[in-house]
């Protein structure tokens, strides 16, 4: 799960594993697997970086024995 920011400044959390694509319109339009979408303040690069960091955190916690995969 990653935090993103709507254009009105409201933060929300999205399951990054459900992101299908990010359109640049020029804002970032995050389209989910179910075709719902959100327009957010973060750039595509920021969203990708957050998603990669989230994935790395899950792997590191699993390696440390903090969670079972």
Fold blueprint:
Elements: E1 2-5, E2 11-14, E3 19-24, E4 28-32, E5 37-40, H1 44-63
Description:
- This protein is an alpha+beta fold.
- Helix content is 29%, strand content 33%.
- It has one helix and five strands; from the N terminus they run βββββα.
- 6% of the residues are buried.
Provide a compact summary of the structure.
By secondary structure, this protein is an alpha+beta fold.
Query: What is the mean pLDDT?
Result: 94
- Structure classification: alpha+beta
Low-confidence stretches: none
**Residue share in β-strands:** 25-35%
As a whole number of angstroms, the C-alpha radius of gyration is 13 Å
Shape: elongated
Number of strands: 5
The number of helical segments is: 1
Cα distance spanning the termini: 16 Å
Largest sheet: 3 strands, antiparallel
Strand arrangement across the biggest beta sheet? 3-4-5
Helix content range: 25-40%
- Please trace the helix and strand order, writing H or E for each element: EEEEEH
């Amino acid at each position: 799960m990653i935090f993103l920011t709507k254009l009105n400044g409201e933060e929300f959390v999205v399951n990054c594993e459900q992101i299908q694509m990010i359109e640049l319109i020029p804002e970032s339009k995050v389209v989910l697997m179910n075709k719902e979408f959100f327009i957010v303040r973060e750039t595509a690069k920021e969203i990708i970086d957050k998603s990669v960091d989230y994935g790395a955190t899950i792997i590191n916690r699993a390696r440390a024995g903090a969670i079972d995969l």
